[in-house]
Amino acid sequence: MNLDPAAVERVVRAALEEDAPSGDLTSQALVPAEAVAEAELVAREAGVMAGGAVFAAAFTLLDPSVEVEQLVPDGDSFAAGDVLARVGGPALAVLRGERIGLNFVQRMSGIATTTARYVAAVAGTRARVVDTRKTTPGLRALERYAVRAGGGHNHRYSLSDAVMAKDNHLALVADITAALRRARASLPHTTHIEVEVDSLDQLDAVLAAEPDTVMLDNFSLADLRTGVERVAGRALVEASGGITLDMVADVAATGVDVISVGALTHSVRALDLGLDVVLRR
């Protein structure tokens, strides 16, 4: 469940620059330069922690003397009222980093919390819950880390990682089977090939090309079960398309191997967390 430190620094530095391009006018006008503050990251609601390192970077990149202690590890659950982390150091750095640190940890913990609910809903089935490329531009590394913190898994990271032939690709080829076979012949043997199928009518032509994964997109539960039966273990079967928490258990029960959920990242609600100053000197 590693998070690339270089990605953290790049994203957090950009956010800090965006938030205070010429400094924090309010804090600089009101707070003595020598003031020291201690603050606590407090949960206003229950959830799953994610983004502790990103939260810390919002302060330490401003001033390395700021100390951040994470009390609840990433991936662990917490209750409303729990103290998740403590921050201590020069007050100007604590105040300037507050909103950026909160923005990241609130969003990442929201993703982890939502993911954990999906994962719990499919427990006991063969299905793996995965994210999609529907991430916030520039934040993919952070958001996909948060999915892993919630117990989920990642789909391909980018367009460069695997072949995924979707409806718009297939609309531009005359013979689906032939096109997929040409793709297989031109690629390294290690490259994974996945093909999106919009209806059962397409399935035989796709399976004839021996893909690694077949995505059944926006299928009914009955058609998912039929699709799994027809694939019969010749490829992994992925279900996708508007899968909500209310229906994910039923989707998993059809026997699919993978359930991809764009909502884990594209429309998740940030958790309500706050940073409260508890001591100043």
TrEMBL record:
It catalyses: nicotinate beta-D-ribonucleotide + CO2 + diphosphate = quinolinate + 5-phospho-alpha-D-ribose 1-diphosphate + 2 H(+). Its EC number is 2.4.2.19. The keyword Coiled coil does not apply. Residues 24-109 form the Quinolinate phosphoribosyl transferase N-terminal domain. It is an enzyme of class 2 (transferase). Keywords: Glycosyltransferase, Pyridine nucleotide biosynthesis, Transferase. GO terms for molecular function: nicotinate-nucleotide diphosphorylase (carboxylating) activity. Residues 111-276 form the Quinolinate phosphoribosyl transferase C-terminal domain. Signal peptide: none annotated. Substrate binds at residues 99, 132-134, 156, 166, 196, 217, 240-242, 261-263. One of its GO terms (cellular component) is cytoplasm. One of its GO terms (biological process) is NAD+ biosynthetic process. Belongs to the NadC/ModD family. Involved in the catabolism of quinolinic acid (QA). This is Nicotinate-nucleotide pyrophosphorylase [carboxylating].
